[in-house]
Amino acid sequence: MKSFQEVLEKVKNNEMKKIAVAAAQDEPVLEAIRDAKACGLADAILVGDKEKIEAIADKIHFDLTGIEIVNEPDGTKAALKAVELVSSGKADMLMKGLLETSTILRAVLNKEVGLRTGKLMSHVAVFEVPGYDRLLFVTDAAFNMYPDLKAKIDILNNAVSVAKAVGIETPKVAPICAVEVVNPDMPATVDAAILTQMNNRGQIKGCIVDGPLATDNALSEEAAKHKKISGPVAGKADILLLPNIEAGNVMYKTLSYTTNSKNGGILVGTSAPVVLTSRADSPETKMHSIALAALVANLNR
Q: Does the keyword Transferase apply (predicted)?
């Protein structure tokens, strides 16, 4: 997989999935749903203020014929209803509309109708960066703040599951640090070395882990060669496992705002994927996120 165009084509070749949108009365979100449906990526159930949803749909020329609308003007109740549609199997994935992230997460974690699995939830962002011959998976840029080793194992496994859903059979994972040598005074390098050893011993499966690696020698074979760093991941990383939310967030926003890249992202570790896009995200980014969620939902099935 080298581009989101390939991702979109892969989604179209699968059975169409259905996404439940919580508080769907949001213009950018409805634009993304309109485009996703038009492209054959996903169908939708819209939960929210029906009058406002219909008014926005009319404004953006979105034909709602055949789309189920559940009228629930209250945001908290709309979030719970959308989650319930997913947990009951009436929808395959969840999307946040005009809601605070905390509201949708409370619904996701609801003990009765939520999407808990007992696993750690984490965010996986996928970037198509001009000049790179592969998609880059960045985790965790949005959810887990300062993960310990146990949490990093879960975050790594979550990212591997997304990469496999996209079509990467054996993802190469680089635990990213400031340096590429183990330094006891830099805990992230110690974690990276342990993750690598766990992978070598078969405790982490389905991928290749090698670290610590600095960002340059994880992404560039030339940089790795210059520093005399060899190995199956050096310069060839698919997944960049960042040490904390600051590093992840900086990388995410730097790629977003300083490169002509395309991206999408989802929350995983739940029983169904969750699309948690920002209001600042473009309709294209939202549509890419829906496509990623559809692939993960297909793998989960």
A: yes
CA gap 32, 97 in Å, rounded: 11
Query: Which residues on neighbouring strands pair with residue 268, listed in sequence order?
Result: 122
Q: Quick one: how far is CA 108 from the chain centroid?
A: 16
Q: Is 13 helix (H, G, I), strand (E, B) or coil?
A: coil
**Which pLDDT tens digits describe the chain residue by residue (301 residues)?**
789 999 999 999 999 999 999 999 999 999 999 999 999 999 999 999 999 999 999 999 999 998 999 999 999 999 999 999 999 999 999 999 999 999 999 999 999 999 999 899 999 999 999 989 999 999 999 999 999 999 999 999 999 999 999 999 999 999 999 999 999 999 999 999 999 999 999 999 999 999 999 999 999 999 999 999 999 999 999 999 999 999 999 999 999 999 999 999 999 999 999 999 877 788 889 999 999 999 999 988 7
Which residue spans within 67-194 are E strands per DSSP?
68-71, 93-96, 122-128, 136-139, 172-175
Closest among 177, 280, 277, 149 to 237, alpha carbons compared: 177
Question: Based on the number of CB atoms within 10 Å of its own CB, is 146 exposed (0-12), middle (13-18) or buried (19 or more)?
Answer: exposed
d(CA 73, CA 75): 6
